[in-house]
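Retro notes
What went well: the complex prediction finally ran end to end.
Inputs used:
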Amino acid sequence: MIGIALVFLGGVITLFWGLNKSESKSLWILRFFMLLSALLSGAEGQGWVDFSELFKWVPAHMLNFNAFKLSMVSILSFFGFYILSLLPSTYKKGADVLGLFAFALTGAMMMVGSQHLVMLFLGLEVLSIPLFVLAGSEKENIYGNEAAMKYFLMGAFSTAIFLLGAAFTYGGSGTLILSEIQMKLSFAAHFGEFPVLLKAGVILMSVGLLFKVSAVPFHFWSPDVYEGSPNRVATFMAVIVKVAGFVAFAQLINTFSPMQIWINQWIVPVSILTILVGNIAALVQQTVKRTLAYSSISHAGYLLLFLILPMEENLPILGTYLLSYGLGTIILFYLMDKYSADGEKSFEMFKNIKNNKIDMAALVIGTLSIAGVPSTIGFVAKYQLFSAAFSQNHYSVYLALLGSAISIAYYFKPFRYALAETNEVDAEQNSINGLFSQICLITGMLLIITLGLLPMITERIF
Amino acid sequence: MLNVFHNLEISHYIYLSTVLFSIGLFGVLFRRNAIVLLMCIELMLNSVNLLLAAFTEYMGDANANGQMFVFFIMVVAAAEAAVGLAILVMVYRNTRKTDVSFLDQLKD
């Protein structure tokens, strides 16, 4: 709750204070609020502080945060802070873009904490609507326009499907509160047969969310949208939307856990299809940004495997995976953004990266982590996820392992250019903002390695 | 007049809203004009509103949860339409078209 309040406040203050100022000044305010929100929500999640007295006017059946959700809110705020610290702005006019980032993050937190279908829907929309605007924030750029239009049409379409599912669920169970729906379902489970309305409801709601997290066969929009949007917005879509989407999705599937066996029948094929299509399509991409887009699709596939597990005791696995995915993705998007500044879009862009030692280290660590090589957090996350899923379904884990073997091929593509002999040496230029982003980058690398070597820390966090 | 509506069964409402929803869905899939697409999305959302209102009435929900949901959907649909039309105006300025056929620049 404190996270939502702080980030929202930060957004409003940024909007008013930064009305006529350049973006970089108001950026510091927003970064401060996001970092504060990350620290306070994290501390509340660990039970060191308690803000529940402050927010007891919020109805608990609408919006409620337990320890896991507080940690996820903390991670979401941290990722918001991290994206805004690492990726530079392409928009110099004012602070309105920053306000939209803050409001989208608020929506993501609402999704994480929702206990009620209305709240889930509102969170989804508060997350999506600012992103429609942000995708087209470069007004003159025709690709940005296309991305905004495509994202808007897909977003509105998937929302409508999600809502039809919510209406059917309401018709089948008579309530919109998730815990009461679960109660009704376990009651129905005793009689063996579930109402058709509820089955249609969970399928339609899942399709709506699968659109949002870009799982195959609903993924076709995401590479285009990522490529057309400004890099910072594309990172935000790839990380924040997926983290919030999967926490909400896990909660939704957990609500329908009495019909878990039936749900697994279609979640497992979707997951395997997403992993294989995402990884194989990423292999043949020419540009770095599209490769990263398909890589994020394939990670959505691994995360879908989580949904077949019994939810409550396995939540740390979800948290670890989302943390590792976010860290690796943000670092790779940052490098892609930095080295594509001169218009080079293919993997050629990395040919000068070894002149900059920190960036080279970041490329190595980020790639190893997202590919799941031991001693990084990516390995811990994948190992935990696969070993838990193995007890449920052998074949899906074999196929997921095949998928992640394929992924090594394209994750290591940058090294072919990065390690090639070149004679050009260009001078490094460093500014104050450059120094700050270097510090953030090193922090991210240290997090990846530390959490990879000491997995008990993540077990303690979640 | 009211009696006519009370004599309708809930299944009639379900069929009607599913048909309306499908008209909107196929409209989004097959029409090319962006303004028509916006109208189709509105149609999908409004068919859901009809269904929610009908379910609330049918189940005699004392808290009228479904009808409360309808208001939220209406507000969000308005916000969505505002953003959608703004995006459309931006696109029109650059391409002089309201046709979604321009959405193929990013393929490779």
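What we learned: Chain B has a mean pLDDT of 88.
What to try next: split runs per interface for comparison.
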